Structure formats: C-alpha cells, structure tokens
Amino acid sequence: MMLGKNLTIIGGSGGMGRVFSRYFKQHGFNVTINARNAKKLRQIAEDLGVNYELDLKKSVENADIVMVSIPIHSTPKMIENIVPFMKENSLIFDITSIKRETYRVLNIAHNKFHINCLSLHPMFGPGIKNFKNYTLIVLRVGGTKHYNETVEEFLDLFKSDGLVITETTLEVHDKHIALTLGVPHMLNILFLNLLKRTNESLSELTRYTGTTFLLQKVFAESIIQREMEMFGEIQIENQDFYTILELFENLIKEYKNIIKTKDLKRFSNIFSQGLEYSKKDIHFENSYKYFYKFMKILKE
Q1: Residue 122 has what DSSP assignment?
Q2: Would strands 65-68 and 135-142 be described as parallel, antiparallel, or unpaired?
Q3: Does domain 6-168 have CATH number 3.40.50.720?
Q4: What value does the mean pLDDT of the chain take?
Q5: Overall pTM > 0.85
Q6: What residues form DSSP beta bridges with 91?
Q7: What is the mean pLDDT of residues 202-231?
Q8: Do 71 and 40 contact (CB within 8 A), yes or no?
Q9: 183-221 burial string, b = 16+ CB within 10 Å, else e?
Q10: Residue 136 · residue 100 · CB < 8 Å
Q11: What is the rounded distance in angstroms from the CA atom of residue 189 to the CA atom of residue 193?
C-alpha cells in the first residue's frame, strides 16, 4: 500500500467537497474538511460524520492525501500555500475545470517538495448519487520515486466504483473542456437570454411547445440554477474558449446571411455539414431513441 488513510479536503463545505467527503469516508479514509466559514464547516462536518480543522497548516501536515476543491481562480494560490506544510510522499490533487495555471503550480510543487501531484476533473456535479459510468479526467503531473504506483493505487479506488478514467494532457484538456462544457453552457445561457429579449414568458411559450423546445428548456433551466461563478470561470479563464467564440461569431454571421438572403442551397450545405459530422459519432444511430426516452421521462 502506497496510500495512507488520512485525507483532507480543502473546500470541504462546498458541494463537491461534500460528495468526496462521503465517498472517501465510505472507503475507510479518516476525512478532515477545511473551509473558511467556521459555523458552516462545523455543521457540515457533524452532518457527514467527519473531522474539521480551521487552521490550514494543521489540516494538511498529517494528511496522506490532500484534495483541493475551491473556485478555479483560488486554487493555484491555495496549492502554493499548503504544499510547504505537507509531509513527504503525500499526494495532492485538485478538481478544477481549467488546468493551465493549476498544473503549472503543481509542477513546481513536486519539483520543490518531496510530494506527489495529480490533477483530476470529475465530469459530474454535486447532485451525483452513484459514480458508475461517469467520467473522471486525469492529468499526471509528477512526484516521488513511486509516483506511478501511488497514482495507480489511487485511481484503482475510483475504477472499482465504475468511474471511467480518461487520461489526457494539459493542452488537450483545456481545449476539449472549452468545447464540452464552455460551449453547452454558453448556448443554454444565450438561449434563455434570447427568449427573455422577446418579452415572452417561458410559461406562455411552453403552452405552444413541441418536443425540441421542451427538452432544450429543461437543459437550460437545469444549468442556470447552478453556480454562476463556476460557469463564468470555465469560459472566462479558458484561453481556448476565446478562439471558439471567434468561430461562433463568424458562424452566426454566416447563418444570418443565409437566412436574410433566403439561400436554401447554402442552408442545405450548412445543415449537411452538421449531419456528416454527427454521423461519425458512436451515439448517432441511437440519438433519436435517446431523445424520446428523455421526452417520456419529462411527460411522466
């Protein structure tokens, strides 16, 4: 066994901190949570049946594993603050959605201190009940002599509960996250704002809804209820998202011109391009079935 059982979660009172507190406790870890709000921290620790510690140094100095679960912009500085207090051969990992700056700081940390550094990105939110078949993105950073063995033992824990492990690099991660998180978030936020600017109420529009509108509305409303700061950071802090915005702006201009000029041939062309792109997806053949399964749930 490379891993010890003392685990600390910085930001343990947040949604994801609570998810992982329960998870690691269920797997026999001695969990300690740390957060700034003392009253909230004590209450959550009591509810979860875990330890709590307000002092940063005390919370990490005896930990075998440290998880950082705080907003994206705060994560690099927090890592810089706590790694000098961590014991040799311990493991630190973050769960941020944007990796560039966090990865840089972790890379410095493992070279300066005798610790193991890993960067994770759970592709699920705090409402999750079961990890099975959800994706966990993994970026290996580096560490001590037995780094790979330590990481494998740690990842095996998640694999045993059915999490799908996707290993990637820094460059690929941020570009793909801009597309798989940033773009859907943007489109749904804009969808609701576009409807709002027509001065029509959603309740009234729902009376006229077909299946496509209803499903899109549900997606958008589920997203808009979640943390604004997280969605903002995923788009604002990701350099790759700016390039996507440029592509999107050009696409909208092209689409507007097609509609304005009533050019059905160009409309057919842009429609066909989307179709051909979709056909390469492994879920393409069953997508219509999935759609109506979702609709059946909504109607019920």
Answers
A1: E
A2: unpaired
A3: yes
A4: 94
A5: yes
A6: 65, 116
A7: 88
A8: no
A9: bebbebbebbeebeeeeeeeeeeeeeeeeeebbebeebe
A10: no
A11: 6
